[in-house]
Every structure is written in structure tokens, then in C-alpha cells.
Amino acid sequence: MRPALTVLHLASGYGGAERLTEALWPGLKEEFDARLLTNRPEIFHLPAERLEASPFFPSWKRVFREVGALRAALRGGETVLSVMHYATFLAVLAARLKRPRVKVIAALHGPILPALNTVLHARKRAFSLAARVLVRLSDTVIVPSHGLKQELVTAFGLPETRCVVVPNGVSPPPDLPLRGPNPWPAGRRRLLWMGRLSPEKAPEDLILALAGLKDLPWHLVVLGEGPLREPLAELARKQGLSPRLTWLGFKKEVVPYLRAAEVFVHTCLFEGFGLAILEAMACGCAVVAEDCPYGPRELL
């Protein structure tokens, strides 16, 4: 009998972490009696069970309710592979309430300290406590970069023996052509940015940088949606860049754009690895990235 494994993946949308879970799924199913437990089964191309839970830290009252829901969904004696921080926080608490013992393997994709010092600063004390709980109560922690491991060991007291660095990978990308018209005008250098248009991705850094390069023949295509969409469009307008930007919104299949682009630009306040950088490199696209903690420096 194969050992039981529950993959707990709480998602707000479809991005790098979700693509990675789908890529790992065939191997997990081969070795384990595996199931996927998620709040958004509709976004995965996998059979999944629904868990009524948040993708991010809500109120403490809601946390306790979601711990109870997860405890009821777990199978005693199994192992939980929890993807990202809040899923791990729920998992380690629910595991302590379940008999027989449930083990938790945490797959943490992003750094904690840079997030606490920037986008999570308003709730830094509560989130710092939660981070210590999820790190110290996990049986094993898997991280994609050595910088992230060093942060967990030095800042949050994770024993080195319980932390494993496993860099992310991508399959060889297919040679897919663009569907529809080419978004880059002829005679322009083809720049591409993709990701969620949110504060931690810092897309405004690119708009401001390009404002100083108006004399060069470039055109930027942006893939992604998010709360900064309208403010970014307004910033581009004020900088006189609107005609040189094309906003294409969310695209689940990004390989054709990475193959067609010349330069992929990666901006972010923090990044545990940077799967998009690896995807761009695999497609033969040159990469320019901010040297944020921790992934881009190790990848490039």
C-alpha cells in the first residue's frame, strides 16, 4: 500500500506556485496515494477536493475555523505537503490536533522577512509570530533557494537539518507560435513583463525606468492582472509611455510570448526563486531582473 499524501494548496489565482504543483503531480501520484486539497479546485487541471479556507492570513477567528475544517479533512497517519505559508500555518496546527499523528512537509516559495518589512509591515507582529509557528512546527521545510534557507535558519530558528533546498525546474517549453496579431510593433525591441500587478511585484519600477529610455526603440508587453492595473496605466500616461505599452491581461499560456520577446524584465520586492525567470531563460529570452532577496541572484 502506498503512503497517503495530501497536497494542501491554497491559491488566490493561477501563477508560478500553481504551475509547479501541476508539474509535480504525476510524480506524486506515482509514489503516493495522493490527493489535492484546495480552496480553488476550478483553477487546477487536476482532480481536487475543496476546502473552505483563505489563501492568506485572515482574522484570527477565521483562522481557528479553518484549522477545524482542515483537521476534519485530514486522514490520520498521513503526510501533508503544504504549499506556501498560510497553508503550512493551518497544517501544523491541524496536525497537532489529529490522531494518529500527521506529518507536515512545508513547501515555502517566498521569503518572510522582506515581506514583513514591506507589504506586510502593518501586521508585522502577528505575521512574525505565525511565521515562527509554521517554521518550527513543520517536520521538514523545502525551499527553492539557499538565500531563503539561510533566512529561515538565522531569523526564525529552523534547524538546518530540517530544511532542504530543492531548486524549481521547468519542462522543455514547446515551440508554440503566437495566436492572433503580434503585440510588438515592427522595428521595436520586444520587452515583456509578466506577473500579478500587485505591490510586491513592483511593476511601477519598470515604468519609471523606461521613462528614462524614451529615446530607445522599445515596446513593452505586460501580461497579468491585479489591483495596480489602473494606477500603472495612469503612471504610464503621465510619463508619456502609453503608446509604447500593450496590456494583454492574464494569459495562462505564456510560452509563445516568452519565445517572441527579446528581453524579459523581472521586477519584485522579494522572490524566493523566480520561476518566471527560469521559464524565460528556457525559452531563449534574455533576462533583466532586480537583485531582490533571494532568487534572481542565484538563478542569474
Overview of the structural elements:
The chain is of the alpha/beta class and 300 residues long. 36% of the residues lie in helices and 19% in strands. β11, α10 (275-282) and β12 (286-289) form a beta-alpha-beta unit.
Question: In brief, what are we looking at here?
Answer:
With 300 residues, this protein is of the alpha/beta class.
Rg on CA atoms, Å: 20 Å
Enumerate the spans where pLDDT stays under 50 for 5 or more consecutive residues: none
Largest sheet: 7 strands, parallel
* Overall pLDDT: 95
Distance between the ends: 43 Å
List the quaternary state of the chains: single chain
Classify the beta-strand content into a percent band: 15-25%
- Per DSSP E runs of 2 or more residues, the count of β-strands stands at 12
Q: How are the strands ordered across the major sheet?
A: 3-2-1-4-5-6-7
Quickly count the helices: 11
Secondary-structure-based class equals: alpha/beta
Elements, N to C (H/E) = EHEEHEHEHHEHEEHEHEHEHEH
Question: In one word, what is the shape?
Answer: globular
Helical content band = 25-40%
